[in-house]
UniProtKB/TrEMBL annotation:
GO terms, biological process: carbohydrate metabolic process
Region annotated Disordered, chain positions: 70-133
Record CDD domains: CE4_DAC2
Bias (Pro residues) ranges: 123-133
Highest classification ranks of the organism: Bacteria, Pseudomonadati, Pseudomonadota, Alphaproteobacteria, Acetobacterales
Transmembrane region(s): 12-36
Protein name, per record: Divergent polysaccharide deacetylase family protein
Pfam families: Polysacc_deac_2
Keywords: Membrane, Transmembrane, Transmembrane helix
Keyword Cell cycle: no
Gene3D superfamilies listed in its UniProt record: Glycoside hydrolase/deacetylase (3.20.20.370)
């Protein structure tokens, strides 16, 4: 076999076929691209058309479209609290917070949201502030004359009604002219000549939670009475804010309750096992914790001092001290007798046990019914929880239209049976005329 024949054997022929196939593939791809031509360029006008033709782009349901030039504006579609739109996709602000940055292009602009006009302000418009609870209730309540109890500040503590003690402590006293604290610091805006049924509410636990205390003072009507917790650290500040709003205040006296010692009213509580001198010393400590209040609430929050207050030999001397100092006594035990040795009143209804919306509303209705039957009624809430403040404000907003007067506690108290309790009577006698039936 010659050298020329060896060079043109089967191996060389296979290699030639391979390169021929490669050449044909390259020519085919190049020809196809040339036939298709360059891709179309989408301009800003086309982007606007796409945004206008997006699914759901109608009144009230439009979705804003954003080119790659910047973050998309907030759409008008519904959003949930987790920052997602109606389709369940994260909103642009949520994606940016998660670290996803939008891509940018040098020649693209941001497309305005549907319905955008020149001079329409920022997008999206800021959400309005929620109205106060009392305003919401007033809108839903029937048209009526304005409620009694517009804010009229209560004067600051009067030095003439304070007794200076050693160590700088001060205790309430009856003034040289016979004035008492429950008259000097009474809610002045209430019409004592009003003959409608009177309903009064005391909210206790004031001062323990700064936020709950502030909301109660701000949202509740001035005719509501507040009971200060003696263990609160900023008691004077809470009392001053309440007086600025024209709200009467009491100070709560912790007493031994039926669940003691499992339910502990604190180290300043009046106890059945303590001596009379020790209990009166603890009472002085409580009274010195504030000034400018009209009286005392027997009990602390949900602890109503049942075990101590049921013993006349223990509660009687306490009432004697309060009477001698020109203070009221509010007994927190529904169904208990009214105070017999001091000006005061026993609570008719506990409003927040349990502190649920439905139960609070039911008990407020019961309180209003009792006021119509008896001429006056007194309710007590142990804590200014948000749900209590909300429902109480809404209920109180409609009282005037229903023919019931919201009254401070000084307008529903009773005269003591004991002739030993002297001092000036509360303004207006303290009790609605129809209340004499009980």
């Amino acid at each position: 076999m010659s050298a020329a024949r060896r060079r043109t054997g089967p191996g060389w022929r296979a290699l030639g076929v391979f390169w021929g196939v490669v050449a044909l593939l390259v020519l085919g791809v190049t020809g196809g691209l040339a036939w298709l031509g360059p891709p179309p360029v989408v301009g800003s006008a086309a982007v606007g058309e796409i945004a206008g033709a997006a699914p759901g782009a109608g009144a009230g349901g439009a979705r804003a479209f954003s080119p790659v030039g910047g973050p998309a504006p907030f759409a008008e579609a519904p959003q949930d609290a987790a920052g997602r739109d109606g389709a369940g996709a994260p909103l642009p602000a949520t994606r940016e917070a998660a670290g996803e940055r939008p891509r940018t292009a040098p020649d693209a602009g941001t497309v305005s949201p549907p319905g955008d006009r020149a001079g329409a302000g920022t997008w999206p418009p800021p959400a309005p502030e929620p109205p106060p609870l009392a305003s919401v209730a007033a809108v839903s309540a029937p048209a009526a004359r304005p409620m009694q109890g517009a804010p009229r500040p209560i004067p600051p503590p009067d030095p003439a009604l304070l007794e200076e003690r050693a160590g700088g402590t001060r205790l309430p006293r009856i003034g040289p002219d016979g004035r008492t604290s429950f008259r000097a610091y009474a809610h002045a805006a209430f019409d004592r000549a009003d003959t409608r049924p009177r309903v009064a509410v005391v909210v206790a636990g004031i001062g323990l939670s700064a936020s709950n205390t502030e909301e109660a003072i701000r949202r509740l009507p001035p005719a509501v009475t507040l009971a200060l917790n003696p263990y609160a650290q900023r008691l004077g500040q809470a009392a001053e804010r309440a007086r600025e709003r024209g709200m009467e205040t009491l100070i709560a006296v912790p007493m031994e309750s039926s669940g003691y010692p499992l339910t502990d009213p604190g180290d300043r509580a009046l106890l059945t096992g303590a001596s009379l001198a020790e209990n009166l010393h603890r009472l002085d400590w409580v009274l010195a914790r504030g000034a400018g209040y009209v009286g005392v609430l027997g009990g602390l929050g949900p602890l109503r001092g049942e075990r101590f207050a049921q013993l006349a030999e223990l509660l009687g001397p306490v009432q004697d001290v309060l009477c001698a100092r020109g203070l009221l006594y509010v007994d927190a035990r529904p169904g208990a007798p009214h105070p017999s040795r001091a000006w005061g009143r026993t609570v008719d209804v506990i409003l927040d046990e349990p502190a649920t919306r439905g139960e609070i509303e039911r008990r407020l209705g019961e309180l209003e019914r009792l006021a119509r039957e008896r001429g006056s009624a007194l309710g007590l809430a142990g804590d200014p929880a948000p749900v209590l403040v909300e429902r109480l404000a809404a209920w109180a907003a409609g009282l005037d239209a229903r023919g019931v007067a919201l009254a401070p506690v000084t307008a529903v108290i009773r005269r003591p049976a004991s002739a030993r309790c002297e001092g000036e009577a509360p303004p207006g006698g303290g009790v609605a005329p129809a209340a004499a039936r009980r």
